[in-house]
Amino acid sequence: MPPDVPPPVCVADVERSAARRLPREVHDFVAGGSGDESAMRANRDALDRVRVVPRILAGSDSPDTATALLGVEASMPVAVAPMAYQRLLHPQAERAAARAARAAGVPYVISTLSSDPLEEVAEAGGTTWFQLYWLRDRARVTELVRRAEEAGCRALVLTVDVPVMGRRLRDVRNGFALPSTVTAANLGTGTDGVPHIARAGVSAVAAHTGLAFEAAIGWSDLAWLRALTALPLVLKGVLDPRDAHQAVESGVDGVIVSNHGGRQLSSAPASVTALPGVVEAVGGRCSVLFDSGIRSGTDILRALALGADGVLCGRPVLWGLATDGEAGVGLVLGLLRTELTEALQLSGCGDVAAARALATVVG
């Protein structure tokens, strides 16, 4: 941190610090959404409209932020979301972020498109989950699941909202492609490990995923996956209560309410507006996590009050990684825990369970 710049006191400060350090095209790759980016903006606007009604005469000197996520103890109701190609942000990449998550006592979700092999990330981390994209070659899907099991990952997170990658105009305008030093380390060579080729007016990342990912997956594929592994199975990208209900009927252990941070369907609703309906649909039969737009401890409180068991935090972790590697990620997670503790105190909650009983209004 330059001597004339004060230390970060919130996630927005960390984001500004990262923006000063990153090449513009890399910053755009992380910060951008799909289409006109209205879904991404809606995430922030909708969260800001959720007002939490505090309780009185029910506070605590030291609220307990600890909880269980998918049956594993966590220091707070937060997991690090799966995010691709973290070597773009820092040379130590996913391993640095996983070490910071381990030190903070929260789960770290390893992406299929991580730039470090999943085994190395799992070894660096504490509680790790593996996020799965469905590849065209089902044998490779099986291979990834088995590798995750053998590496000690505690859950499998199937992303279901990327049949194709949303058209991200910042990347298209930049002709964005990964540098040769950044690869999808879990995919190796072959059709699903082809190199990224820079071309004007084309996102090489989107072109790559179009070759690698299977678009036409359905509930029968989920049944096959459920039979393949005994790991807890979570669906990421659920917005419709009907899909949440069917997911529970299909034997999943959790759903993640998410519009992919505004990076897929640009007209999708803000994730937080979908959260109450999904919570009602599952009726306590599986875990419900929330993703897309978490920027503060107050945002975590909002999600808890709307019925989520916990949240996933994405871009802020990458801003921290870009700013100061493992220490930067630790700073972001520490800020979130400090803010959550204060939010619990101010809302009259002694623990996470009390926060889930708070009332909310939209204003």
List the main descriptive attributes of the protein structure presented here.
globular, 14 helices, 8-stranded parallel β-sheet, flavoprotein, FMN-dep_DH, alpha/beta, TIM Barrel, 12 strands, FMN, FMN binding, 363 residues
Structural features, described:
The structure is a single chain. The protein has a single domain (15-362), classed as TIM Barrel (Alpha-Beta Barrel). Helices cover 42% and strands 13% of the residues. It has 14 helices and twelve strands. An eight-stranded parallel β-sheet has the order 4-11-10-9-8-7-6-5. It is globular and about 60 Å long.
Itemize the secondary structure elements and their pairings.
Blueprint: H1 11-21, H2 24-31, H3 38-49, E1 50-53, E2 67-69, E3 72-74, E4 78-80, H4 93-104, E5 108-110, H5 118-124, E6 128-132, H6 138-150, E7 156-159, H7 169-174, H8 204-212, H9 219-228, E8 233-238, H10 241-249, E9 254-257, H11 271-282, E10 287-291, H12 297-305, E11 310-313, H13 315-346, H14 352-355, E12 359-362
Parallel strand pairs: 4-11, 5-6, 6-7, 7-8, 8-9, 9-10, 10-11
Antiparallel strand pairs: 1-12, 2-3
Helix pairs in contact: 1-13, 4-5, 4-13, 10-11, 12-13
